């Protein structure tokens, strides 16, 4: 981390330019008047319908908690330089101490066409992952995104930009390309390889956006298989998405497929298939989500979302419970926007499990959630 910090400071000192620039992050800086304090909090209540243990205690107790409590500083430095720092102060459901979430410096010598960001930021992969947490249409991200877009954040270098006017169309193309450690948030690399992640969005009309994402990389150091041959764990992800928004109606969808070669956490665990006589496992996972919502004149937005995730026999965690079967979820939601900074979300998650060896799995694992958000 000291080396990364030194690089960031050096970048600030050496960079020079001629115009104001927006930061690449959830919140954009709006002026050159110095640092701006930004953030949001999301207190939440979850009630799980998971049944009871043999002693009568609930398998997952209902609870009040903070989903997120984030505070950061954004700003611009004349000329063409911006900075973004965000910390997470909520222990969430798992406990823990506050930690650095995002921290990067952006240089934009060519305006919005080409920018360079160095530091820790979200991976440029997946529509739903790159939707800011305070702008998600449902309280939770989809299971397929949680499993196949991870690690959500990483340390690296990103090239990004958009076309101001191409063929007479504003922001027809936007892109992000990143070189990443591949080890996740607040971790240095443990091998000489780097992950490559990229996202391209085409918007031929204001009401239609079509996107594609790709990420690949080596996970961990070189290992030896059962035959004494060297091999590396490898993670590859591909995603396609679409957004239609018109007449106060929005339809969004995303399909993600991923391959894990070797025993990689997140969408791959015990079992699976072998790619060699030495027994190196390979998992070919996939899933998608589709959401439809309508904004009424009363600032109420009903939403229905369907999602499915096939782990290819690998183990993964859903609502804190480990499982290895196909998970189908329908979310019935209602969003109420009190104003531009405050909203309330109600979600009921109905789950229907897939089959294992021809036998249908059906578990008591529905959930009801309510979240209040205040942004500043």
Tell me about this structure.
- Helices cover 5% and strands 53% of the residues.
- The protein is mainly β and 376 residues long.
- The strands form three sheets. Strands 1-2-3-4-5-6-7-8-9-10-11-13-14-17-18-21 form a 16-stranded antiparallel β-barrel. It has a two-stranded antiparallel sheet with strand order 15-16.
- A hairpin with a 4-residue loop joins strand 17 (327-337) and strand 18.
- The longest helix has 13 residues, at 2-14.
- It starts with a helix and ends with a strand.
Q: What's the architecture in CATH terms?
A: Beta Barrel
- Could you please say which CATH topology applies here? Porin
Largest sheet strand order: 1-2-3-4-5-6-7-8-9-10-11-13-14-17-18-21
What percent strand? over 45%
Structural class: mainly beta
Helix content: under 10%
Biggest sheet overview:
16 strands, antiparallel, barrel
Mean pLDDT: 86
Unreliable segments of 5+ consecutive residues: 1-23, 267-271
What is the CA-based Rg, rounded? 22 Å
Backbone shape: globular
Quickly count the domains.
1
CATH superfamily: Porin
Count the beta strands: 21
Alpha plus pi helix count:
2
Distance between the ends: 29 Å
Order of helices and strands: HEEEEEHEEEEEEEEEEEEEEEE
Tell me, what is the CATH class? Mainly Beta
């Amino acid at each position: 981390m000291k080396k990364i910090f030194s690089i960031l400071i050096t970048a600030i000192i050496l960079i020079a330019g001629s115009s104001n620039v927006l930061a690449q992050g959830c919140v954009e800086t709006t002026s050159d008047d110095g640092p701006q304090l930004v953030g949001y909090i999301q207190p939440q209540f979850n009630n799980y319908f998971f049944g009871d243990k043999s002693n009568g205690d609930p398998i997952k107790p209902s609870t009040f908690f903070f989903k997120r409590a984030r505070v950061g500083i954004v700003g611009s430095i004349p000329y063409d330089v911006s900075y973004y720092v965000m910390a997470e102060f909520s222990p969430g459901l798992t406990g823990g101490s506050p930690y650095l979430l995002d921290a990067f410096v952006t240089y934009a010598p060519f305006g919005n066409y080409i920018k360079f960001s160095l530091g820790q930021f979200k991976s440029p992969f997946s529509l739903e992952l790159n939707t800011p947490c305070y702008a998600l249409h449902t309280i939770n991200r989809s299971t397929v995104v949680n499993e196949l877009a991870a690690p959500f954040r990483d340390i690296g270098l990103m090239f990004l930009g958009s076309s101001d006017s191409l063929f007479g169309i504003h922001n027809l193309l936007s892109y992000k390309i990143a070189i990443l450690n591949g080890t996740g948030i607040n971790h240095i690399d443990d091998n000489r390889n780097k992950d490559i992640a990229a996202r391209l969005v085409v918007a031929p009309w204001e009401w239609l956006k079509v996107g594609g994402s790709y990420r690949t990389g080596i996970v961990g150091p070189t290992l030896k298989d059962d035959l004494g041959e060297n091999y590396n764990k490898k993670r590859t992800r591909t995603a396609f998405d679409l957004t239609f928004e018109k007449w106060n109606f929005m339809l969004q969808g995303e399909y993600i497929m991923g391959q894990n070669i070797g025993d990689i956490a997140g969408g791959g665990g015990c079992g699976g298939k072998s790619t060699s006589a030495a027994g190196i496992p390979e998992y070919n996972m996939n899933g998608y989500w589709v959401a439809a919502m309508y904004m009424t004149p009363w600032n109420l937005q009903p939403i229905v979302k369907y999602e499915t995730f096939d782990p290819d026999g690998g183990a993964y965690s859903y609502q804190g419970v480990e499982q290895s079967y196909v998970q189908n979820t329908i979310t019935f939601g209602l969003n109420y926007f009190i104003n531009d900074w405050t909203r309330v979300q109600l979600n009921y998650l109905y789950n229907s499990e897939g089959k294992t060896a021809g036998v249908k799995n059906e578990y008591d694992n529905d959930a009801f959630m309510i979240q209040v958000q205040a942004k500043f």
